Amino acid sequence: MSATRPLHLAVALDGPAHCGAEHYTELAGLAERGALDFVTLGDSFARPGLDALAVLARIAPGTRRIGLVPTVTTTHTEPFHVSTAVATLDWVSRGRAGWSVGVSATEAEARLFGRRPAAPLGALWREAGEVADVVARLWDSWEDDAEIRSAETGRFIDREKIHHVDFEGASFRVRGPSTVPRPPQGRPITVVDLTGTGEPGRRVAARHADVVLVRAASPEEAARTRALLRREAAGHGRDPGSLRVLVSLAVDLGESESVPHPGLGAGRRLAAPAAHFSGGPVELAELLARWHRGGAADGFHLAPIAPHRDLERIVNGTVALLQHRGLFRTFHPGGTLREHLGLARPANQYATAATGGPA
Question: Is there a contact between 43 and 13 (Cβ–Cβ < 8 Å)?
Fold first, then answer.
């Protein structure tokens, strides 16, 4: 495995809705045994089901290393609540939290809240970008050493190290500070899935995301998308090397158990519109290795068609083969999601501003 370009792997826990935590705990534990970077759990106001963030908070104590990334919808949701909820997940998981930025575009979803009508996609993603911005500021509104907890002096916090964010966006204002201390990771990982978002989503990803999920029909297309995102991130003053771009791939490892679908394996074509692999664990390992060696992506976000069956075959077949070939790690490199992804813990923007450092 290249020392400069490690392979990153994540898996979606989505599938038929379950109302018990055991299903998700078992899947997350299986992904953890494979040393995967993180699991995702989708969410939307457009469909019934459990709250993804609450589910992952419930299973956090049942896991030790795997990153936990729920979708959190920014539309119709107060940014302050997004901030505190994701920060809480980071605390209860001891630094393994992230969040995938979601938007709600339909009138039916807007009627659930009754505050405002549905908005165009561009406006929704502009708002999502502002939410991502203010959420990061709220996480930084407590400096790392703001808590004193001195029984002798009766002081709980150093008020000089608690900051008002005073943020004003197009549709909300947030004074702050947060009610939750700065998370263990400083800032939990921000993920943006570019499926169906177009240019507005890509702009938010380039400016705010740590991890971007993309769809691609070929390694060349994936490489072009990755290069574009890195250029745009650099245009915002970011280190493009700090952006992790993962190709999303629906995976069916049923082989002869089901009717095969066109996929991305050798000799197979892409099943439009989503990238869809159908085949065996060995073929999948070869595909992932080939795309990664060619510089197409930093890794892959796999969505099992049959969650239990396919995830077990991913971990015990595909991942085991990649590990045997030295292409994927055999253990988590640290305790936090940032450490899994090779991302530094960010400096607090208010503390660095106070000392004259870069904000």
Answer: no
**Residue 143 corresponds to which amino acid?**
E
Query: pLDDT tens digits, the chain, 359 residues: what are they?
Result: 444 589 999 999 998 888 888 999 999 999 999 999 999 999 999 888 899 999 999 999 999 999 999 999 999 999 999 999 999 999 999 999 999 999 999 999 999 999 899 999 999 999 999 999 999 999 999 999 998 876 676 677 898 999 999 999 999 999 999 999 999 999 999 999 999 889 999 999 999 999 999 999 999 999 999 999 999 999 999 999 999 999 999 999 997 554 444 344 433 333 334 589 999 999 999 999 999 999 999 999 999 999 999 999 999 999 999 999 999 999 999 999 999 999 999 999 999 766 665 54
Contact in structure between 278 and 243 (CB atoms under 8 Å)? no
- 97, 337 contact by CB (below 8 A): yes
Length of the chain: 359
The CA distance from 134 to 137, in Å, is: 5
The CA–CA distances, whole Å, from 330 to 33, 94, 285, 296, 325 equal 9, 21, 15, 23, 11
Residue 38 C-alpha from the chain's centroid: 8
At which residue do the structure tokens 């740590």 appear? Answer: 210
**Separation of alpha carbons 318 and 20, rounded Å:** 28
Rg of the Cα atoms in the chain:
20
Rounded Cα gap, residues 36 and 67, in angstroms: 8
Inter-helix orientation angle 219-235/281-293, to 10°: 50
Contacts 24+ apart (CB under 8 A), 263-267: none
Tell me, what DSSP letter sits at residue 142? B
Q: What is the pTM of this model?
A: 0.92
What is the distance between the alpha carbons of residues 280 and 286, in angstroms, rounded to a whole number?
10
| DSSP result, 241-273 | GG-EEEEEEEEE--GGGS-----SSTT----SS
CA distance 189 to 179: 20
Task: Enter the tokens of residue 141.
Answer: 């509104």
